[in-house]
């Protein structure tokens, strides 16, 4: 009986701690973007219309279509169902995908010779951007 009570007590302490998220929050966006990007001067301009280059952008299984506005190194816009905030640092683009005020993904993309942005997207708890999945965007207009 004591073992069961002890096990329940341990679970009551451990489960709430495990439920605490380390995911990036909206309030942490600017400091995190500055830290991860290094705040280098932008060497590229990504303003314009973009779409998912890895799937049909008109399906629900795609990132969809959207637009980016760039002011200096700051990016804002939308892509599919997400609001986008981000920074351009050198030739690298750092994006944060938001919906209803929550961070759903981040991304690190580089502009390639073909004009596409290629790189990876990450879950919001992967603050160091180490375990990503491929993402490619193609410009479809200005």
What does this structure look like?
- The chain is α+β, with helices and mostly antiparallel strands.
- The protein has a single domain, classed as Lipocalin.
- It has an eight-stranded antiparallel barrel.
- The longest helix is centred in the N-terminal third of the chain and has 18 residues.
- About 9% of the residues have low confidence.
Spell out the blueprint of helices and strands.
Layout (H helix, E strand, L loop, with lengths): L1 H18 L9 H9 L10 E5 L12 E7 L2 E6 L2 E8 L2 E8 L2 E10 L5 E6 L10 E9 L1
Antiparallel strand pairs: 1-2, 1-8, 2-3, 3-4, 4-5, 5-6, 6-7, 7-8
Q: Rounded to an integer, what's the Rg over CA atoms?
A: 19 Å
H and E order: HHEEEEEEEE
CATH class: Mainly Beta
Main β-sheet, spatial strand arrangement: 1-2-3-4-5-6-7-8
Strand percent estimate: 35-45%
CATH architecture: Beta Barrel
Question: Main sheet, how many strands, which sense, barrel?
Answer: 8 strands, antiparallel, barrel
**Structural shape:** globular
Q: What oligomeric state do these chains adopt?
A: single chain
